[in-house]
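Final paragraph of the annual report: two paired records, presented back to back.
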Amino acid sequence: MITIEEFDKVEMRAGTVLEVKDNKKSRNPAYVVTIDFGEELGVKKSSAQITTLYRPEDLIGKQVICCVNLEPMHIGSVKSEVRILGTESAQGVVLLRPTQPVKNGDKVF
């Protein structure tokens, strides 16, 4: 268990997918996803293993929820700056998404 104070340190934000490409140097199938988080955070990249259920063209323009305050990590040759959130489901990773359009950078709480 974590405390509410520890949970409050996790910063989750909504962003809009701008671009999706294959991460050719990842050990497991993954995309390099470019996401716009608005004026405050700008544009960030993530390497995401979401290839089972999503095609690149289906993700463009969609909003996703990401953790934006983790230390960046290199996956293959990509600097993954944020973590896209989803459920680890029987059919594959299912992305968490707002049910209504929101402003890029809006906080999740």
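The closing record of the year follows.
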Amino acid sequence: MSPDVQALFNQLAPRYDRFNRLASLGLDRWWRRVTIQRIPPHDAGALLDVATGTGELAILAARERPCLTRIEGLDFSPQMLAFAREKASRVGLKDRIQLTEGWAEALPYPDGTFTWLTNAFAMRHVCSRLRQVLGEMARVLTPGGQVLILEFSRPTWMMARAIHGAYVRFALPRLGHWLTGETIPFHYLRDSIQGFLDPLAFLTTLREAGFSAVQATPLTWGTVILYQGRKT
């Protein structure tokens, strides 16, 4: 991600969780829960949440999968991480989750460190370096380790696609402006959603990065896709 995008997320950090709740009508919590439920409840592996933001997915993993022996969250935004640390401390999970500042294109971990890798809504921000990012994800996974990626998509059902397109183009920037007084950051978020790969293209990219048994599960009429793959 570029320094400009980093500055954008530093700017959004204080209102990011509230924006997500309102913009998704509260569904973002359910999408994350569906993701964590893909991890077997007795799996004693290690998990890395890339682009953890304010720590929502990492905190949920710590709550719902106490069997995990190690949970780490990595993000390039120091302001987002500050909020993640405060939230983890508030819910009594400060010592359970390690939070690190870093970049998805160069993960600061040895090969084969993690058995699970999660990511929520960040792949579209690294489109120009997508293969590099996915290659890094594969590198730090153990053989047989799995990746779980949430990302926005465009529904295939015509009615849902029309409603979703209008919402993303017009309502999303207005909601962001109402919450923050800013407009440009939410135009960027809108454009990143509309410009991301379709599910079939992203599954192909996952395979090319070294993942097998890849699958895409549509959520909420296909507005969000949960991607899953196994390191070969």
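The chain has a mean pLDDT of 91. This concludes the annual technical report; the extension proposal builds directly on these records.
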